Amino acid sequence: xxxxxxxxxxxxxxxxxxxxxxxxxxxxxxxxxxxxxxxxxxxxxxxxxxxxxxxxxxxxxxxxxxxxxxxxxxxxxxxxxxxxxxxxxxxxxxxxxxxxxxxxxxxxxxxxxxxxxxxxxxxxxxxxxxxxxxxxxxxxxxxxxxxxxxxxxxxxxxxxxxxxxxxxxxxxxxxxxxxxxxxxxxxxxxxxxxxxxxxxxxxxxxxxxxxxxxxxxxxxxxxxxxxxxxxxxxxxxxxxxxxxxxxxxxxxxxxxxxxxxxxxxxxxxxxxxxxxxxxxxxxxxxxxxxxxxxxxxxxxxxxxxxxxxxxxxxxxxxxxxxxxxxxxxxxxxxxxxxxxxxxxxxxxxxxxxxxxxxxxxxxxxxxxxxxxxxxxxxxxxxxxxxxxxxxxxxxxxxxxxxxxxxxxxxxxxxxxxxxxxxxxxxxxxxxxxxxxxxxxxxxxxxxxxxxxxxxxxxxxxxxxxxxxxxxxxxxxx
Length: 477
Hints:
Layout: E1 3-4, H1 13-29, E2 32-34, H2 37-47, E3 52-53, E4 56-57, H3 61-70, E5 75-78, E6 84-88, E7 95-99, E8 105-107, E9 114-116, H4 119-131, E10 135-139, H5 152-162, E11 168-170, H6 178-189, E12 198-202, E13 209-210, H7 212-223, E14 228-236, H8 244-265, E15 271-280, E16 287-288, H9 291-307, H10 325-339, E17 344-349, E18 351-352, E19 357-358, H11 360-377, E20 380-381, H12 384-387, H13 389-395, H14 405-410, H15 426-431, H16 437-448, H17 458-476
Parallel strand pairs: 2-13, 7-10, 7-17, 8-19, 10-11, 11-12, 12-14, 14-15
Antiparallel strand pairs: 1-20, 2-4, 3-4, 5-6, 8-9, 15-16, 18-19
C-alpha cells in the first residue's frame, strides 16, 4: 500500500520551541488569575507562596512540563450504549466533527427567521446530528428558552441525552447546574467514567483568567473520570493582542494553566485543549473569523501535536446570515484545514449570525463539506492495481475506459456524489425553472427534517429524567 496523503503544516520545530518558550515565560512572570479559592490553595502548595499574590499565580515551567507529561496522549470515546467510537490523539487520528453549540436562537428552515431556541429545537437538532453519519458527536446545541430559567440546563440536557446515542460534548449555561446535570445522567445511565461518552467543555476567560466556574466544574468532571475540554474564546484586539502571535501565546498560556490545574486535581486526567480565535471588528463591534483565525487554530493543533495532547479545534462557525455564501467560505476553509491537521475534534459546526443562532440548513450543508474534505484528506493510492497498466494497455490508444473492468467495478463509489444537489446540465437546469442552490438546499432540508427517528429507549429515558427533575424541584423548594 502506497497512500499519498495531503498534509498541512505551518510551524518549524524551531518555531514550535519559540512559541513554547514565550508561553512559559508568560506563565512564570505574569501568570494567571485564578478565581477559585480552593484552586488557589491547591496551586499554592505546588508553586510556593512566593509565586502567589492574591488570586494571581505564577506557574513555574517545571510544573507545566510535568502536566504535559502527565496528560494522556490518547482518549477513547464511546457512544451512549458503550460501543467504542473513536480515539482522540495519536498519529492515526483524524478530525471528528460535531454539531452545536449553545445558541439562543433557531433559524426556521422555511424562512431563515430567527426565533427563540426551544425545547423542541433541541430534540430535533440532536436527532439531525444522530442521523447524519459524518457527525461523530453532538454538542449542546442551544439554550432552551421556553422553560423556566432554572430548568434550562436540566431539561435541555435531558433532551440532548435521550434523543441521540452519539458522544456528547456538554455545556451548561448556568455553572451551578453542572453537577445536577451529571447526577441526572448518572440516574439514567450509571457510572459515566467507565466508558465515557460525555465530554464536558469549559472556557477560561481571556486574558489570563481561570474563572471559578471553569476550574470548579473541571474538578467535578475529572473526579468522575470524564475527559474534559479546556478551550478559550478570544477577541483579537480586545481580549487578546491583535497580532496572531500575541494571541497564540496568551491563549496557549491559558490552556497550559488549565492543564496544570486539571492534572493537579488528578494526575493522568484525560484532557483536550483548543482555541476559538475570533477577531473583533472595531467599527461594528461584531466578532468574525478570518484567514488568520484559521492560522491561529492551525498553530494550536501543531502545538498540541508537539505536546502529545489531544486537540479541540474550531469549526469556523458564526459567520454568515444562515447557510449562505458568507458562511460557506469560512466553513470550507476551516473544515479543510481541520482535516489536514493532526486530528482531534471540531465539535461546533452550525452556528450562524455571530454564533447567536443555529440553522438546520447549515448542519445539513456542512455535512457535505465534511464528506468532501475527508475525501480530500484521505489522498490517493499509488500502487500497481491503482495505476492499472495492464488495463490501460488492453484499452489502447484512442479508445475509452467506460466499459473497462475497473470502471464497471468502481463507477458508483469512485467519486463524490452530493446528497443534496443534482449534477445537471445547463439544459436540465433551465428546464427545471433555474432553481437557485439556496432554494434547493432549503427544500431538501425541509424534507430531511420530516423524518427524525428517536432512539428506541427515548420514552423510557425521558420518563426517568422528568422524574429526576421533579424530585430535584421538590428538594430545591
